[in-house]
Design goal:
alpha/beta; Spore Coat Polysaccharide Biosynthesis Protein SpsA, Chain A; four-stranded mixed β-sheet; about 50% helix
């Protein structure tokens, strides 16, 4: 990820202060990413770099666990990947987390937004990611949801993914991510029938996928679905069918209910537009 690291880090640096640190784990790259990171570290002293020797037994989920263990703060912001550029709304997401903490009188939970997550480090140490390459986030959501430690909010997406260069890399990542995504969806779906219908609709009717991606998903649908169903954890069958919806939180409604005690949410006009006013569209 040498070609995207600087863009990613710079987008973070522009919006954080000394309350934050940037923890970067390099999992045995061979493209001089570490050299790029060490140069950035000299420029930004609140950045910490952990270069690991490559171990094929260690997948993405465990690498995320390494970063959480290395973090020194009480809270962690998760899924800030090396090929993401972030708009200046991460501090607002942090403030929303603490507003929910206060107004809902809850601690040690994960707040799930659009491609961004926040949780107490203590919760993440006690409930680590599974050591898998894709889908580690969705598995964790299901597990935290089953113990009442998950809160979800809808908002405009605040990151842009930097496109990979090279057709082979793009194709390999596309196939891996789509197959794993389908498998995980069926492993942790509250209704496997509804999940199948949802995929078929996306493939055949008014899909947000282009033709090539729809064709690829159609080819992989049956084997990935079988793999997901075979590897379905037992505890998922014990969850209520709508458990994913039990933890959706409407920030505007929360603000109304708690306005007399706590006032308005600590957000400016632009931040409200991102996280509250238009969230019905997302």
């Amino acid at each position: 990820m040498k070609g995207t690291l600087s863009l990613c880090i710079e987008s973070l640096v522009k919006q954080i202060n000394n309350d934050f640190e940037i923890v970067v784990v390099d999992d045995g790259s061979n493209d001089k990413s570490v050299e790029t990171l060490l140069n950035l570290k000299e420029k930004y002293p609140f950045m910490r770099v952990f270069p690991l020797q490559r171990d094929r037994r260690r997948k993405l989920g465990e690498t995320r666990n390494v970063s959480i263990k290395a973090a020194r703060g009480q809270y962690v912001l998760l899924h800030i990947d090396a090929d993401d550029v972030w708009e200046p709304y991460l501090p607002a997401f942090v403030r929303i987390y603490h507003e929910i903490e206060k107004r809902c009188d809850i601690d040690n939970f994960m707040l799930v937004g659009m491609q961004i997550h926040m949780a107490s480090r203590e919760l993440m140490i006690s409930n680590p990611y599974h050591n898998i390459y894709y889908g580690e986030d969705r598995i964790l959501w299901a597990e935290l949801g089953s113990i009442g430690k998950l809160i979800k909010i809808n908002h405009k997406e605040i990151r842009t993914r930097i496109p990979l260069k090279g057709n082979k890399k793009k194709l390999k990542k596309l196939i891996s991510s789509q197959y794993s995504g389908i498998s995980i969806a069926f492993s942790y779906a509250s209704s496997r029938y509804q999940t199948l219908i949802s995929y078929l609709r996306r493939i055949f009717f008014n899909s947000d996928w282009e033709f090539k991606l729809s064709l690829l998903n159609f080819i992989m649908l049956m084997p990935a679905m079988l793999n997901g169903c075979i590897n379905r954890p037992k505890f998922v069958n014990q969850l209520p069918s709508n458990y994913r919806n039990l933890f959706d939180l409407n920030l505007k409604e929360l603000e109304k209910k708690t306005l007399r005690i706590y006032g308005e949410l600590n957000l400016n006009e632009k931040e409200r537009n991102i996280f509250i006013d238009n969230n019905k569209d997302y």
